[in-house]
Amino acid sequence: MTMLGPILAQIAEEMAALPESGVSADYILELARIDPDQFAIAVVTADGQTFTAGLSDTAFTIQSVSKVFALALSLGHVGDALWQRVGVEPSGQRFDSILQLEQERGRPRNPFINAGAIVVTDTLLDGCVPREALGGMLRFVREAAEDDSILIDPAVAKSEIATGARNFALAHYMKSHGNLVHAPELVLGTYFHQCAIEMNVVQLARAGRFLASLPDVPQLVSPERVRRINALMVTCGHYDGSGDFAFRVGLPGKSGVGGGILAIAPGRASIAVWSPGLNVYGNSLRGTVALERLAALTGWSVFG
Amino acid sequence: MTMLGPILAQIAEEMAALPESGVSADYILELARIDPDQFAIAVVTADGQTFTAGLSDTAFTIQSVSKVFALALSLGHVGDALWQRVGVEPSGQRFDSILQLEQERGRPRNPFINAGAIVVTDTLLDGCVPREALGGMLRFVREAAEDDSILIDPAVAKSEIATGARNFALAHYMKSHGNLVHAPELVLGTYFHQCAIEMNVVQLARAGRFLASLPDVPQLVSPERVRRINALMVTCGHYDGSGDFAFRVGLPGKSGVGGGILAIAPGRASIAVWSPGLNVYGNSLRGTVALERLAALTGWSVFG
Amino acid sequence: MTMLGPILAQIAEEMAALPESGVSADYILELARIDPDQFAIAVVTADGQTFTAGLSDTAFTIQSVSKVFALALSLGHVGDALWQRVGVEPSGQRFDSILQLEQERGRPRNPFINAGAIVVTDTLLDGCVPREALGGMLRFVREAAEDDSILIDPAVAKSEIATGARNFALAHYMKSHGNLVHAPELVLGTYFHQCAIEMNVVQLARAGRFLASLPDVPQLVSPERVRRINALMVTCGHYDGSGDFAFRVGLPGKSGVGGGILAIAPGRASIAVWSPGLNVYGNSLRGTVALERLAALTGWSVFG
Amino acid sequence: MTMLGPILAQIAEEMAALPESGVSADYILELARIDPDQFAIAVVTADGQTFTAGLSDTAFTIQSVSKVFALALSLGHVGDALWQRVGVEPSGQRFDSILQLEQERGRPRNPFINAGAIVVTDTLLDGCVPREALGGMLRFVREAAEDDSILIDPAVAKSEIATGARNFALAHYMKSHGNLVHAPELVLGTYFHQCAIEMNVVQLARAGRFLASLPDVPQLVSPERVRRINALMVTCGHYDGSGDFAFRVGLPGKSGVGGGILAIAPGRASIAVWSPGLNVYGNSLRGTVALERLAALTGWSVFG
């Protein structure tokens, strides 16, 4: 992919020229302040090269993109027993919906909506305290990215705890159905810190290489689990906008409310984009458009 | 894929040994009579070869698999204007649910649940009578399969009309929201006949080749539309069991209540399986397991 | 109640001075044309007197008020077996909602939402054709009012059939759950004609006397059934505005989209109001306010 | 009502002979231990007499019956502004449902489902600490019953806090919509203690006299508010069994999961029953039957 450099430069230019950039998440104070127009993209390819465009040095909190890493780690801990507590189906609802949780008696539809991710984090607390669970999470991400400089932004975590009433409702609700082992306060303390892991697009793209099954990178989970995580990213990675993302981009992907998206071209590349302005589904507006353009220009869609 | 013959033989053997085969659809009289244990599989590969195992000569009505062909045809007629009337998101509900239709004011979530497929068929009636619309549909399928012997089974269509109250409810409901142009009786008459198109697995696999973008076959829709139809098959092709299918099989697929499934390995193969016994989601039980095995044995999953 | 004449005159004056009158039902052509400002009220008291104010000679189609008479008649035909097919709980949804019908497998929540009323009409067709069922209905209403001049307006019925897609959806949906015995076309033909029974407020108030258990009037149903119908009118008589009506008026009541409301002061009076402008719940705006005033000025609330 | 003594004795005898008694609430440890067969009834009439039958000295926690007193008290504090935060419509859902809260953006349907009652208690904390709010609540109930011996059972309150995850979910969820002013822990601490107010049926019937507008008793709220509270008790007092209770009993009533029910015959009597075994709606099974019999034998139904 010798043309990848110019392609990314072209995409960055197109994004800067887009009339709309979406709106930064307003319910987390620390995020609301961020300029929604910013943009960065990084691609790590199978031959080990890294291509970038835009603000590729700017760090952002990965937010819900962390759900992918937490899932991979949890499956290593508890194995397929996880699926007793969380489903693998699209929810057809907003990321923080509690409605379906009542209809399905406290079992979240999938691990990428908030309720499901809270259960995943709950499993990471088995036999350890939050600080240790977070240490394990950070080690996993650093190993995936082969980069020990990745850190958590405690100010963002604190800000999210203060405004996290919806997530507290989800945790208590699952507790009432026996689907939360640890205390809601502990699980959410861990969860919000996990969401506050900070990376730039290069670090994030590197951290995603194991999902693209790129050669010569740490293979942290089995090939079968990689396929299944990618499948979940396609069907559930963008909440109630997952169908739209698959339709337009055609790659497994997971978005975060901080504006980051990790996308996977199996066997070919791990891609990270960042632009804080969000679309109606709560996913990065320019990030989604950029990935749509990248898939079109490279032919990397998994759908033909 | 020189090993494909033995692989299919092995799968057919495994399926015959499966302790469970599911239950034939019981709400359509003509289907309820069919032995649920029967099994057939056919694969057409990029080099033009066809491999089969099981009852590959036995014809069955393709039922909801027809929704894929109807969608392709409709997009040719009305283009992306279709998406004004139908969405592209998983529904998270049963195939014949009317609940979400109320919440979303008569706009079906996607073209592969019944409500969405009825809208698609409605577009095929623009400017023509049911007989002509069905003629066009049959021509499209025959051209895709390069096989003029494909027919409609009128007894099955008639049987479905008689027990089609749920679909009549969906049609009238959409009519009440202005999302049905033609009379419910005409649209459903067409729809039930389209579902009663009869093929064996070889014919169905051949009819699906254009979605696998195989070389030297009639390219009936643009590459971009192929990608999008495949994306919809992954996110919505198996109703509220779509996530499970993606998770286990990892291929775009569309099932029918007659026990048929069309699955696509982009660039590699078009696959048809048939086994009338259904699982809890209303998809072929053995057909799904067979595809899971095929994907595992060939490494054809689109997810890595 | 010697003061009732002046009280009604005062209420009529207040209604004429109300800044808002609501909007006439727009989905039925014949109703949309009617001036929403019009107002009439009639009260028949226990001593046999009739008091009126406003346009008490003007006839209007009683629409959903007919559901009360149909229920009384149906209970006479099939008895408490009716409650196997229809519930007695408030729906918490719009009058024409289909959503809850899916959740509750085709059994409507109560006989005063459209779905429930369609089941009630279905029972009236047992053993007879629509013309006979309607004849029975008309006889019942005429006997209740002791007035043989009450008729059906066929133009309104025809107009409703033409725009009745939502009701057709409800009927077919219940059919799919086995909760409709007769053909949807026949049931709805009967239903729409029943809704098109035409009365003025004096006729309607007289027709309601049996529910107020007034002395010296035809007692068409047992005292126990009268109490139960009144209970249903309180909890379910105004759709998802029933709580509001009970809260503000405090009398059993049933509204119709034509602007009529029948209200019952048990042992004291039968009351009919009419004003075609509707509030957000689809109930007569001025009719509701007038009843609120009447209850306040007479102390007739059943709640103390 | 000279016959009231024999009537109550007869009812108590009938209840003892009933083949079923329901099941004691199992999610609150302290309640689960209680024998479901026990029964008591007390009636205070307009002439000041008190009639009883059964275990009329046995105290029980009034649980959700306290919602009526809290509502009366809250309306005194914040007036009709309360209705900005809580509705007056039946919910059509279980008492602890969170589903509708999402659909209606954190505004509970009525003050008698748990979510609504939590908002009501939240208003009682304006300007004071939980201990003070509970003191005010207890003063109100004691004044209503003219009985200073009424107390709170702290062991039951503690037991409910420990198993109150569902209510914590409701509180946090409303907090996320800005419909909870005080901290969930404080509001629920107050709420669970209010539910643990302990009375026997005589005390409860006496506490309800102001709602029956009996002469010579403390009139704690205005006649208009009395009517409105009674209206809410009819439409919403028994959760998703409210329609059934109105249909069968025909009196305003509020049940508690401890097996108590307060019922009001406006102008005639205040009635309390207790029997811990619950029916499918979570209301006292024998208590409901006893009230049905009482209404039938006395003719006290408000519906004629």
TrEMBL record, chains A, B, C, D:
The keyword Hydrolase applies. It holds the Pfam family Glutaminase. Keywords: Acetylation, Hydrolase. Substrate binds at residues 64, 114, 160, 167, 191, 239, 257. SUPFAM superfamilies: beta-lactamase/transpeptidase-like (SSF56601). It comes from the Bacteria. Its EC number is 3.5.1.2. GO terms for biological process: glutamate biosynthetic process; L-glutamine catabolic process. One of its GO terms (molecular function) is glutaminase activity. It is an enzyme of class 3 (hydrolase). It catalyses: L-glutamine + H2O = L-glutamate + NH4(+). InterPro entries: Beta-lactam/transpept-like, Glutaminase. Belongs to the glutaminase family. NCBIfam families: Gln_ase, PRK00971.1-2. Homotetramer. This is Glutaminase. It comes from Rubricella aquisinus.
